[in-house]
C-alpha cells in the first residue's frame, strides 16, 4: 500500500512559525519565552502548593507550565503539547444501546419522541420540493453492496448524506439482502457548503430565507423511497452528532465517512466515527469516498493514511473508496 509521508505535524508547525522571525530577533524571542515559561511555572507551582489544592509533589515540574504561548508578529510558540494530543479524541463512550433500540433512542433524544416526518412537508417549503431529486457522488459504487453483504450490519452510520443518494442505495441493498431491521443513521448539517447552489448540478436548488432546503429534499426523497422506517437522521455538524452518539452508546457495524473533504474535517470525522465502530460477528467496517478521485488530495487520502499509521491498519481500496476492516474483537 502506498503511504504518503506526512511530516510530524507539531514539528512542521514550529518550523513554519520560526521561519517568520528574523534571525536577529529569534534568540531574543526564545529567551523571553523561556523566561516567561519559567516564571509562570514557578508562580503557579508555589501558589498551588500554598493553597494545598492539588497534590503537587507527585506531578513532574513540566505539568506546571501547561501551555505557554508567546506571540510576536504572527508567531506562536507553544509547549506542553504533544503529537498524541492531536490523535486524542477521547475513548470512552456510553453503554451500548441494543440495535433494536437505536432508532427510538435517536427519535427520543433528537426529536422529542415525535417522528420528524409527521405532517411532512411543512407548508413553507411544500411548493419548493421536487417529487424526488437524488444526486450524489459515487453513491452507487459496488463497495456498498460488497460491504453490506460481508458485514450484514444492524446499524449503519453515514456521516455526510446530502440528498440521500448513498443512504437510499444502502436501504435498497439491505432490503435485497433480507436485512429488514437494519437502521441507517444519516448525519449531515444539510447545508452543503457556502455557495454550493452555484454548482452546475445544483443551480435549480430553491432557497428560502437563505436555507437551501437540503434537509427537506432529503426527507422527501426518503418518503418517496418508502424508507422513513429504515432511516433516521441527525441534522447537526458531524463532530457534535458523532460525540452524542458516543455518549448515548449508539454504535454501528458499518460506518461511512463522506462529509467534509479537507484534511482536518476528514481526520476528525474518521477518528470520531471509529469510536462508534462495534464489529459484530462478521467484523466491522469504516469506509469513505474520495481516496481515488480528483478531490482526494484535498485531504481525505492524507487523513486516511495517517489514521492507518496511527492505528496500524491496512487501507483497502474498493473503487474510489477507502476501507478499514476491523475483525470481531470478541
Ligand atoms: C459529498 S456530500 C455526501 C454525499 C452522499 N454520501 C452521497 O454519496 O450521496 C457531503 C455532505 O457532507 C455534509 N457536510 C460537510 N461538512 C459537514 C459537517 N461538518 N457536519 C455535517 N455535515 C457536513 C454536506 O452538507 C454534504 O451534504
Ligand atoms: C412505495 O410504496 C408505494 C405504495 O405501496 C408503491 O407504489 C411504491 O412503488 C413504493 N416505492 C418504492 C420505491 O418502493
Ligand atoms: C502500532 O504498532 C506499534 C509497533 O508495533 C506499537 O508500538 C503501537 O502501540 C501500535 N499502536 C496501536 C494503536 O495499536
From TrEMBL:
The chain crosses the membrane at residues 21-43. It comes from the Eukaryota. SUPFAM superfamilies: S-adenosyl-L-methionine-dependent methyltransferases. It comes from Datura stramonium. Keywords: Membrane, Transmembrane, Transmembrane helix. This is S-adenosyl-L-methionine-dependent methyltransferase. Gene3D superfamilies: Vaccinia Virus protein VP39.
